[in-house]
Write the structure tokens for this entry.
Amino acid sequence: MTDKKRTVSVAVIGAGAGGIMAAIKLREAGVAKVRVFEKEHDLGGTWRDNTYPGLICDIPSHLYRFSFAPNPEWSRTFSPGSEIHDYIRKVAQDNAAEEMITYDSEVTRLEYVGGSGGGSVSKKWRLTTTQGYQGEFDIVLSAVGILHHPVYPEIEGLDRFAGDCFHSARWDHSVSLDSKRIGIIGTGSTAVQIVGAIVDDVDKLSLFQRTPQWVLGVPNQSYTDEEKTRYREHPEEMQREYDGLAQTLNHGFAAAVVGENDEALAAMQNGCQQNLDDNIHDADLKARLTPDYSAGCKRLIVSDAFYPAISKPNAELVTESITRIEPEGVRTADGRLHELDVLVLATGFDPHRFLGDCEVVGLGGATLADAWSQGNYAYKTICVPGFPNLFFLGGPNSPIGNFSYLLTAETQYRYVEKLIDLIRDRALDEVNPKSDVTAQYNESLKRAMAGTVWASGCQSWYFDRFGNVASWPWTFARFEEELSQPQLEDFQAA
Ligand code: NAP
């Protein structure tokens, strides 16, 4: 059976969690040639880039793992970023994934060209990186991640600040914060975590808030040695822990944000309000920290440290808007100059760029940039008409705010593997979704988005520049179902 299969080559873009998992699984599936192109000098994606103080993952640790590599060693309910980076590195090492990775090679161009035919598919993706031409591949799998293009705020005078200034995802560890005056712009998950981690070490902390956020105060407990031993010796108990967490997250939180579990949404709202009531006793501060939109509209923040930290005498919540940055600090609309030694830009990421820095030329010379000029779209988050045999993990409308990305990526990978099997088994030469089917799918996706909490009246990074929410508007069960089996009739016959 196997020797009748076509031999195919796959280029994976990105050696983050998704790319590493895909490379391991592709090789396991018998794909003869798998090469991973990574733009940086190390693997780990977002867990390599983000090293700021206080970095943790707000998805519970035992849920944030690959299905094939459960980890009894997680230290806490929510793991520190460095521990997750180590975990990904270990999975790569244990599965000899490193040998498939070409580092320092950003993919700058992909062109779908006629190939030599023979035993393989007749067309190929010609791939070029910053190191030059790298060869032709039958299939390209983009695993470039979502939250990794830092957004720098456009504030007058930013380049004239005399102190140290850096984005939270480019933390400058050569700069000591001890006993200094620190400013942080932004109040997303990142800023909240930094505030809790540094407030006791600095002289003065000024947090510049444009919009308040709802914060759920879940404690971050350590796993005891006994618990770790139990998980090591009884993996079925670790699996039970996973199942319980998956049930809570996927059928509670994830269903709540897409309008499928009103009870869970109300519980989330009440939990956030309770956290605020219990921890903020100053009426003025409380008013300024209270959002005017529903919990979950912006990505929910999980922290039991933020409110106590922002209430400390050396911390100040600045809610006057920023007028400009001056060499000495930040000038706000009330005319006040907030003098600073260090300015941290916790201003988030552009999750809509995908292969934005790569020129992708598909069938008939069409470019992906043109195809996406009115907004990114895909067929079931995975592939785009006119760009055959190019697949995405974490592609357009992936459930970026709903579930663990690792779970999402594995679900998408399993589907991609089935598409690749169609090519290997000679059922299709090209996997190219039909335009009309893709358009219909995206229409229903947009309609469903109106019923989600993200569209209920706030601004967030879920929105693209055209005002569309770019996430998954349905349940996790629907995500799994949609990606369970390729519908051959949805693809061009080739
Ligand atoms: P974010 O949620 O996009 O927050 C950016 C913050 O910067 C917002 O408060 C925004 O204000 C503010 N901002 C942006 N431009 C500004 C400007 N010109 N002036 C003033 N304020 C400005 O970014 P993030 O905190 O880095 O988090 C991004 C996502 O990464 C999270 O939602 C989460 O999914 C992920 N993340 C996860 C973890 C984790 O624990 N797993 C940790 C960190 C991050 P507005 O609200 O007014 O726009």
Remarks:
- The longest strand covers residues 107-114.
- The chain has two domains: 9-149+350-490, 150-211+318-348.
- The chain has a mean pLDDT of 95.
